[in-house]
Amino acid sequence: MTQKPVTVYNFEVEDYHTYFVSDEHVWVHNTCGEIVHDTVKSYEQARNKAFDIIGDMGETVPYTGRLKSSAGYGKVIGRESTDGKVRWRVDWDEKKGPHINIEDFRGGKRSKGKKEVIPFEGNEDTFKSYLKHLNR
């Protein structure tokens, strides 16, 4: 990376929430306006709240992690509807800690989609222990 000013552009790539640009493999993220809920005590409370928010997903399939820098890469991290319009997944980052992400595109993509985060108490090891549980 350089320390010089560069011109940047604000745009969305249809059908992609995140994507790589340039030979530098810069990872960019479409704005999402996600709702971050208050932290709950446990994974189970977060999962139950996610299910209450999502409602009926219909038939589901395992959802596999795609971010190479995550401990969840290539592993089952949640569930997704067979039509790909709604999913939940367990995640961890330094800012939110362990949490469940909800992505619901049944109402449409981009700004019509709903993205919510339900943090639960713990640390990165807590996240990894739930990955093991999901991948039994």
UniProtKB/TrEMBL annotation:
Gene3D superfamilies: Hedgehog/Intein (Hint) domain. NCBIfam families: intein_Cterm (TIGR01443). This is Intein C-terminal splicing region.
